[in-house]
Every structure is written in structure tokens, then in C-alpha cells.
Design goal:
83 residues; single chain; 3 strands; alpha+beta
Length: 83
């Protein structure tokens, strides 16, 4: 459990998206991969599947987190796709 806590405490939120179908979401992930920047996403699967009766709240967002040591480089990548 200590390893997981250490990893989670070393992450910084980079961006939040409403859907996995956002072009910038997929572009950002591809560019982070290309740059060799490790990242994790939260709620990606929850927002990609629409269950019967819409049981998932509509306010669930998808977050991309990167390691704090790569945050500045990741922000530059994010800025390049937001312009």
C-alpha cells in the first residue's frame, strides 16, 4: 500500500475532459506517449460506456494526471493543443 500511496502523492492533475470523444483528450494522450511522459486517467471507462437508464452521473469528468517531475513539460504539450 505504501507504493500506491507514494505514486498517487507524486501525481499532479494536468487536464479535465467531459468525454473520451474529445479530440484534445485523445491528442493529449498521444502526445504524452510520444514524449515518454507517463500518465494515468481517471473515470475514462465510466464515461465511455452509457449504461441502461443512465446510471452514471453526468458530472463525472475524465482527469489526466502526470508525475510532478514531468508536469511542466506536460503543461507545454497541453498548451500547444489549446491554441
Amino acid at each position: 500500500m505504501l507504493v500506491i500511496n507514494h505514486i498517487m502523492s507524486n501525481l499532479a492533475s494536468l487536464a479535465v475532459f467531459d468525454t473520451i470523444f474529445d479530440i484534445k483528450f485523445n491528442l493529449l494522450k498521444s502526445m504524452l506517449d510520444e514524449a515518454g511522459i507517463w500518465y494515468i486517467t481517471s473515470n475514462e471507462n465510466a464515461r465511455s460506456v452509457k449504461p441502461p437508464l443512465s446510471m452514471i452521473p453526468t458530472n463525472v469528468t475524465i482527469e489526466i494526471k502526470v508525475q510532478k517531475e514531468n508536469f511542466e513539460e506536460a503543461v507545454e504539450i497541453l498548451k500547444s493543443i489549446q491554441e
